[in-house]
Amino acid sequence: MDDMSLMVDGNALAGELSEVFVHEMTQARVACAGCGEVEQLGADRAYVQAPGHVLRCCHCDRVLLVMTRTEERLLVAFPGSRWIEIER
Fold it and tell me: Which of 8, 12, 24, 72 is the most exposed place for a label (fewest CB within 10 A)?
């Protein structure tokens, strides 16, 4: 199975992100620390078939966001994001 068959768009993370952020996060803009491109989170590539969720830049494939859930916690990391802009 190749990566493209596992990928959906970032809108797949809407439910998970709503547990952490009160604003609609798929509309948030994310700046990639790798290539510098800025896109709405919903336009980037989400991989949700693993134990955690991974969001990759739709331009350079850099990992922008990783979410992992345990019974007690939700861990969110933004390893490849320069910044995230959330409209109020």
Answer: 72
